[in-house]
Amino acid sequence: MTERSDPTPALGTTPTLGSTPAQTVGPYLHIGLLWPDGPEVVPDGTPGAIWIRGQIFDGAGAPVPDALVETWQADPDGRFDHPDDPRGARPSDVPGFRGFGRSATDVDGRYGIRTVKPGSLPGPDGVPEAPHLNLSIFARGLLHRLVTRLYFPDEEAANAADPVLGSVDPARRATLVASPAPDGCRLDIHLQGTDETVFFAV
Known about the structure:
Blueprint: H1 29-32, E1 50-57, E2 68-72, E3 100-104, E4 110-115, E5 121-122, E6 128-129, E7 132-138, E8 146-151, H2 156-161, H3 163-166, E9 179-181, E10 184-186, E11 189-190
Parallel strand pairs: 1-10, 1-11
Antiparallel strand pairs: 1-4, 2-3, 2-7, 5-6, 7-8, 9-10
């Protein structure tokens, strides 16, 4: 870190100034963006509920303890209760389903979202998209959110036909497909490095 010079240098000399501190997104995510049931897309006891869990790692492989994961998804029928759904907004048949979740990471970089598996939905060209969750990642050092997807490991045929997943380099598709877990599935997210998760420009 460069120290600042004397603010009143001698006459005839040129002052030397220190570096301006870099701007970053501080660890402020936990202050105003969390609410108690944020990780609960569906209420406790919902039939068919699963947990989406994982860890977030930085480029050096260290867990990120102050990140935030948001999820947005269709319901099990592949519908959204939102005006942007071209088929029209429709409330879900799953009681309490809200389609949106938000989980902070803990000291080990772990996050968790309780939800139900979404259904397939029509893609922009009429090609069905495989069941998936849209994920947004917020963390220190990021001036903009990172956007990725989670695909389910038991949807091999649908994943193989998915137009978005099919547009990804085959060597990197595995970064978007979750692993089975006893109570749902797991997707670790790597912000940088050799195992970097695929992120989308949206």
